[in-house]
Write a structure and sequence with these properties.
The chain has 328 residues and is an alpha+beta fold. It contains five helices and 15 strands.
Length: 328
């Protein structure tokens, strides 16, 4: 039996829209962290656990503006309070946004009490969902919460269609990190030194090439006029760079070894952000809601959020090189 909890149209204020080198939408770890916190509470109160979630965005407003003329967008920052001496405090650049999202969460465990038990769980969720922050932002409201189950394949297909219709209008965030391996293999056919970073840049940068516009009897020179043509991305779709987790860059240090850590009672490890690719896709184009679920995957110093189509880091193959993961 498959059970799904849908948190429908969550309105979030002042969420963090900066994730490593990327900005414009919170990292996937924010959403899975929110679900994990809910799961810990539900395990104690209802003996059920949550595993993975699908992310759908209905509306977003990044707090940024573009100066007059040409230039990059600039975050709209708030002035910090004065210091104790009355001096003006320095501004720490922060990227904030308002957003309305829906989360489809897979639930494991038996909800006791039948329909009455489901109704009581919905009321419980409406309380605790508002008590947590999502991506560092305050949740103002949740439109509705749905808890639905399917036992057979036919019921699961009908339920998947029902959930996907509910997410309209909006866009699902899908994992497309496997594109990096495919494109990297294509680049290495002409340049053996190409790596995953080169493949990643081909997806996330805007590239143009100059095509000479020669007149009759004109030789190519530095004065030749050119027409600039846009270079299309290696794959079609609304593809975006994503911060999808972390990679360890040091050994795990025992607790108390390093001073000034956030929690001195826990082991410590230095990490760096790991990046992948995502695609915004309309829910009606997704064949199964399970294809949009993000889950934690960990192995050999990697802590990642990945979809079903991504590489399985929990597999038994221990000879995989770092660059074969499809993340960088």
């Amino acid at each position: 039996m498959s059970t799904y909890i849908t948190l429908d149209h969550i309105q979030v204020q002042n969420a963090n829209c900066v994730a490593g080198l990327t900005f414009g939408f919170p990292a996937v770890t924010h959403f899975l962290g929110y679900v994990h916190a809910l799961s810990r509470k539900l395990t104690q109160s209802h003996n059920i656990s949550l595993h993975g979630c699908a992310i759908a965005c209905h509306q977003h407003q990044v707090h940024a503006y573009k100066p007059k003329g040409y230039g990059d967008y600039i975050f709209s920052l708030t002035r910090n309070p004065l210091t104790r001496t009355g001096a003006t405090a320095s501004i720490t650049e922060e990227g904030k946004m308002h957003m309305t999202v829906s989360l489809v969460i897979k639930c494991e465990g038996l909800i006791a009490g039948g329909e009455e038990g489901v109704a009581l769980l919905v009321q419980h969720l409406k309380k605790i969902c508002l008590m947590q922050k999502l991506a560092g932002g305050v949740i103002n409201s949740v439109k509705d919460i749905h808890i639905e189950s399917a036992q057979t394949d036919d019921e699961h297909e009908r339920l998947s269609r029902k959930i996907r219709r509910r997410l309209l209008p909006g866009f699902l965030l899908l994992d497309r990190s496997q594109y990096l391996n495919e494109h990297c293999a294509h680049l290495q056919q002409t340049n053996p030194n190409s790596n995953l970073f080169d493949a990643w840049l081909d997806f996330v940068t805007l590239k143009f090439k100059a095509e000479p516009s020669l007149t009759q009897n004109e030789d190519l020179s530095d004065k030749t006029k050119a027409d600039w043509a846009y270079i299309h991305k290696p794959k079609a779709g609304y593809l975006v760079p994503l911060a999808v987790g972390y990679r360890a860059i040091s050994e795990v240090l025992p607790h108390g070894t390093l001073s000034e850590t956030r929690d001195s009672a826990m082991p410590f490890c230095f990490v760096e952000s790991a990046y992948g690719l995502g695609e915004w896709q309309s829910p009606h184009r997704t064949e199964n809601i399970d294809n949009a679920l993000w889950n934690y995957q960990t192995k050999e110093g990697w802590y990642l959020c990945a979809g079903l189509d991504s590489v399985d880091l929990d597999g038994t193959d221990n000879d995989i090189e770092d660059d074969d993961y499809g993340f960088l």
